[in-house]
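Working notes for the structural subgroup meeting. M.R. asked for a predicted model of this chain before we commit to crystallization trials. I am recording the input and output together here so anyone reviewing the notebook later can reproduce the run.

Input as submitted:
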Amino acid sequence: MHKLKFHIPFVKYQWVLITVSTILTLAGLLIILKYGFNYGIDFEGGAKLTYRFQASVSEGDVRGALQRMNMSDADVVRYGNPQENRMTIKVALPEEHAKLGEQITAGLEETFGKDKATLESEETVGPKVGKELRKKAWLAVAFAVILMLIYIGYRFDFFFAPGAVIALIHDVIITMGAFALLHKEFNTSTLAALLTIVGYSINDTIIVYDRIRENGHLINANTIKDVVNLSINQTFARTIITVLTVLFVLIVIFMRGGGTLHDFAFAMIIGFFCGTYSSIFIASPCYIGLYKTWPRIQAWYKR
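Returned structure, recorded in token form:
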């Protein structure tokens, strides 16, 4: 069987693409700090109600109906395909929330007509539970990154580990920045996508690192760039096949999944692109930089 062979000068453009990555990562951080996350009720607490309307309505129409019910702080987002006329309503839990769904349904029917708004689902989470889940979610991401650092350091050596972790942080921040910018709901499904991205990114990086280690007998201060570039090219065909096969599935889920699956697929698509990109243009150049500067750092330290 004919194997695809590549001779692309990846390392030649490393500084240009590292600069682009730095800008994107800083932009992601600024967007997160400015807009924050649209936390789902899993992490924020409150009530989430999904309605299906018989006629076409806009978010503004639903907000107007909720304002007349003294729920001006409610968050209204279109859910699924626009043709389905579904809306999700997120509100803080009032002290008496046992009949919250009935109250909102009655108010919507008063505005849009009897039986014109059907309550399809209702979820409630207390604010204390939501805060605790949010704390555990971020701890899960942090622990995953730390464990990856330990694993890479154990399996390879010190020169490999920092680049892998920087690549992971890059992928996660850009994905989260996209969610903050587009005001997409950040919930347990999004968290699952982030952890999957961490796993995929490190797997892709390990494939490249493993080939660099196999070619390690060719490496010295003068040849390291050429050897790393050779190693990336040797694994590039496998990378393309892996990404495309997964991407086809994710695109179908993104276009046809709807709701939570739509956002999950959105996160995964961004994360998979970033994971492949960072393995080549962040993790590998970090290895080169650390390998070449470490002797100077040791000499300075021993003075």
